Amino acid sequence: MKEQTEVVICLGSSCFARGNKQMVQIIKKFLEDNNLMHKIKFRGKHCFGNCENGPSIMIGQKRFEHLDPESVLVILERELL
Ligand code: FES
Questions:
Q1: Model confidence, pTM
Q2: Shortest-distance Cα residue to atom 1 of ligand 1
Q3: Does residue 77 carry a pLDDT above 60?
């Protein structure tokens, strides 16, 4: 895993209403539980411009779409651990 990886969550209204509100807490807890808070920059951003494929997050340059609370954890484990 690279240092200073950035995780960006879409907080635009569509993604937010369809699950990213809860996903903020899920991602935060994942980063805390895995002691990654000092290595990963986690921030929110307004609409990624691809609402129909949301809820979305980005990890580095990769975008992940159609997420739910289970799939986001699988992706975080695969990309960050
Ligand atoms: S609200 Fe997330 S892509 Fe538009």
A1: 0.92
A2: 12
A3: yes
Q: What is the pLDDT of residues 30-59, one digit of tens each?
A: 999 999 999 999 999 999 999 999 999 999
Atom of ligand 1 nearest to the CA of 20: 2
CA 22 to ligand 1 centroid distance, Å = 15
Q: Is 54 in the pocket of ligand 1 (CB under 6 A)?
A: yes
CA distances from residue 57 to 14, 32, 72 in whole angstroms, order as listed: 13, 18, 9
Domains delineated in the chain = 6-80 (3.40.30.10)
Give yes or no for residue 47 CB within 6 A of ligand 1: yes
